[in-house]
Amino acid sequence: MNSRNLFRALTKPLFIHNMCKRQKGYKVVKRPDPSTLKMPNLADAPSIMDIIKEKVRLNGPLTVAEYMNIVITNPTEGYYMKKDVIGETGDFITSPEISQLFGEILGVWFYAETQKMCSGKPLQIVELGPGKATLLIDILRVLNRYGYKANDLSLHLVEISSTMQLLQANRLCVTHKETGLELPYNHEGETASGIKVYWYNDLKKVPNNFSWYIAHEFFDVLPIHKFEKTEKGWREILIDLDANGKLQYRIAANETQSVKVLVRPPLDAGDRMELEISPRALGIARQLANRVDQHGGLALIADYGHNGEKGDTFRAFHKHKVVDPLENPGEADLTADVDFSQLRISGSMTPGEENYAVVVGPVKQIEFLERMQAGVRLQVLIDNAKSDEEKEKIKAAYEMLVDPKKMGERFKFMAFYPSAMAPILQKFPPLGFSTPK
């Protein structure tokens, strides 16, 4: 055999049957149908305290944000997931539940400010954390007087609690149902007048159209990180277990990732020794600002809070009383005052490639309501009351909203407008945020 034939023989493919046969290195597994999956039996679900103890055992002390997230949103035992907590029989009461006047004034504000930019039709009304839907009901009553019909608007509710979704649906709709996983919304319904209603578990899933965004007592329940300034710099406050298995605060020995990421200018400006920051609140404020600027509309934030002067506001409410937030987790509402100075930073930007919003406020609730001529509406309600007892109830409810020692000064209002509205607002200042001339 010459060298050429030898080379061909060596380079010819060699097939060894069976030895070189390729075998499958995986097993085909049929995925379960998501629509058939069910939640575990509630009777078998671990308690909130058991969940927290196991988290600490596996990962060490929790941040306050992690603790709040577990206590508030656990699918089976979370505070907002299993019961109606709003009202006289619950743990706290909100302004719309106190007086119909509150929601009506907000409806008038949205309508009046919208007239400065367009007709406001078609309109999406988007509420974050709608509670019992009382605020929406009062706003719809105002829009009916302004001539809005069913085909002029739709309602979009951002709500993570299936319990609250069902409560809202029963109050708003004559028909409603759950939807499939292929849709961005997980519940839909229709009001008696034909208005379409949709429920979402995330603001990102709400369609990007001209909208009114309402966030009333929403930001105060978003998880916060707590920080304290020490001789070694900023350190995070953590939640740990003591020798008896009871929850307690402790301060981190070293910088946590949250300190490195969050505690920097402008959020740590000034000489503050304590700081609370909610990354989720900052993210949602930025979303609202961008949505308003890109697609038109208005965003109104109403909550109890401050303008950057406070640093330790984390607490809990049970049966309308302040209680220790580490006692009986899951049985009380966890909350922290909203830092409106942080929302302003997140919502407003220097004009450029990224979108931004014109941010106005915060102003105190008493100032906002009085500038919106709430006293005029109050008198109408009093005049239409059927008895002296009813008149006194109406007056008392209004006093609770505006009394500086109650809700009048603790609650604040802030609004986001599209950036294109800046010159218009110079000529026609925002109602409620400026003194009428």
Automatic annotation (TrEMBL):
One of its GO terms (molecular function) is protein-arginine omega-N symmetric methyltransferase activity. It catalyses: L-arginyl-[protein] + 2 S-adenosyl-L-methionine = N(omega),N(omega)'-dimethyl-L-arginyl-[protein] + 2 S-adenosyl-L-homocysteine + 2 H(+). The keyword ATP-binding does not apply. Keywords: Methyltransferase, Mitochondrion, Transferase. It is an enzyme of class 2 (transferase). Its EC number is 2.1.1.320. GO terms for cellular component: mitochondrion. Pfam families: Methyltransf_28. One of its GO terms (biological process) is mitochondrial respiratory chain complex I assembly. The keyword Transferase applies. SUPFAM superfamilies: S-adenosyl-L-methionine-dependent methyltransferases. It is found in: Mitochondrion. Belongs to the NDUFAF7 family. Arginine methyltransferase involved in the assembly or stability of mitochondrial NADH:ubiquinone oxidoreductase complex (complex I). This is Protein arginine methyltransferase NDUFAF7. It comes from Euphydryas editha.
